[in-house]
Write a structure and sequence with these properties.
The structure holds two protein chains of two kinds. By secondary structure, chain A is an alpha/beta fold. Chain A is built from eight helices and twelve strands. Chain A is 32% helix and 20% strand. Chain A starts with a strand and ends in a 6-residue tail after the last helix. The chains are: A alpha/beta, B mainly beta. Chain B: It holds the Pfam family ThiS. Chain B: It comes from Desulfuromusa kysingii.
């Protein structure tokens, strides 16, 4: 029967046990993942099983990492996610976290745009580190993304996104994540993108400040091409700042909306 | 005339433009995305688009924070 060992097709005899396969191919492996789940005991293998063998604490090769990703995300899902090209306009609190979530999910290509540099005041919610202060956000984020997923293709635009350059920067993305800070900028990007690319999809955010109820953050379908994450009301203003938990909830709403769209599911 | 605004039917005087509707609703034109009858309306058409009885309008107002 045919199985997939580290995503390479292999013929094995039917009735073969997992541990005996490990002893033959990678006796030092201490983590065995069968069809996306870590196996806690020996088991009989079935035709079509996907098996990944990992040695704890050992750096995997690029091929092994790819196989591991594929195994973790269940067969079929990984290929669709890897084929995705997502744009992120603004990599502050929302955008930096959306990028990390998508990188961990195995996205194939990201186009990130932001003119800003990392500042100490960003560290309360944005996915940067003390030693990155002063660096352009797109390159600091690019470094972190590569540390998580070296296979990802990243296109960095260290420039302000304007009505004039949206078409050029985001021409080849499948889905755009709006992750700006200012209401004017959010509306400008949304209007321009939706008018320029009526067949692409926009996942925007609005109403994410403060420490109000987690469950008031929602993903709302405005149209087939426009989704909005947030409570829609709570603006960042004096007395109601942006804080990591709620910004993170909204960013992960956006990332999950992107993931569901790539997998042909309705974001909700 | 009746307009459907974010799912609610409201009455307005005839022949108002989208720009006038925003002003009447107290909405900042630079912070909104408008869908008119399920199509995105480009901001440069706000002052040229005259609304008709029965139009369906979605006003998506952004607030700051990201």
């Amino acid at each position: 029967m045919l199985i997939y060992l580290n995503e390479i097709p292999q013929q094995i005899e039917s009735g073969r046990q997992l541990y005996s396969l490990r002893d033959q191919h990678k006796p030092e492996a201490d983590i065995l993942i069968v069809n996306g789940h870590p196996a806690s005991s020996d088991m009989e293998l079935n035709a079509g099983d996907h098996i990944v063998m990992i040695s704890r604490g050992v750096q995997p090769s690029a091929t092994e990492l790819e196989g591991l990703m594929m195994a973790r995300h269940t067969p079929g899902v990984h290929q669709k996610v890897k084929g995705g090209h997502i744009g992120i306009a603004g990599v502050g609190g929302l955008g930096s976290l959306v990028a990390l979530a998508l990188a961990r999910t195995g996205i194939g290509q990201l186009t990130i745009a932001d003119f800003d540099i990392v500042e100490p005041s960003n560290l309360n919610r944005q996915q940067y580190f003390i030693d990155q202060i002063g660096q352009p956000k797109v390159s600091a984020l690019g470094d972190s993304l590569k540390r998580i997923n070296p296979a990802i293709k990243i296109n960095c635009f260290e420039q302000k996104v304007t009505p004039e350059n949206i078409a050029e920067i985001f021409a080849t993305v499948d889905i755009l994540v709006e992750a700006f800070d200012g209401a004017d900028q959010k509306a400008m990007l949304s209007n321009q993108f939706l008018c320029l690319f009526p067949d692409k999809i926009l996942v925007a955010a609005s109403g994410i400040a403060g420490y109000g109820a987690s469950n008031s953050i929602r993903t709302t379908k405005i149209s087939d091409h426009f989704y909005l994450c947030g409570d829609g009301i709570t603006a960042a203003e004096p007395g109601c700042g942006l804080m990591a938990p709620r910004v993170g909830i909204a960013a992960n709403h956006q990332a999950n909306a992107v993931l569901r769209l790539l997998l042909n599911k309705e974001p909700e | 005339m009746d307009l459907s605004i974010n799912g609610q039917i409201k009455q307005y005087q005839d022949k108002i433009t989208v720009e006038q509707l925003l002003r009447l609703s107290g909405i900042s034109p630079g912070q909104v995305v408008i869908e008119l009858n399920a199509s995105i309306l480009s901001p440069d058409l706000h002052n040229k688009t005259v609304l008709k009885h029965g139009d369906t309008i979605e006003l998506i107002q952004f607030v700051g924070g990201g």
